[in-house]
Amino acid sequence: MNFEGIKKNYDRGLWNKLMVKKAVEKSVITAEEYQTITGETYTA
Prior knowledge:
Layout: H1 3-11, H2 17-25, H3 31-38
Helix pairs in contact: 2-3
């Protein structure tokens, strides 16, 4: 999974914010990409 796939799944409602946050924690996406996807600032 990459940024594009995660964003697509989030936009479709298949992923929630917690799932996107886990992707940041696993270094799949960056905190900046989290903000792009969710519209919220990432906080650890």
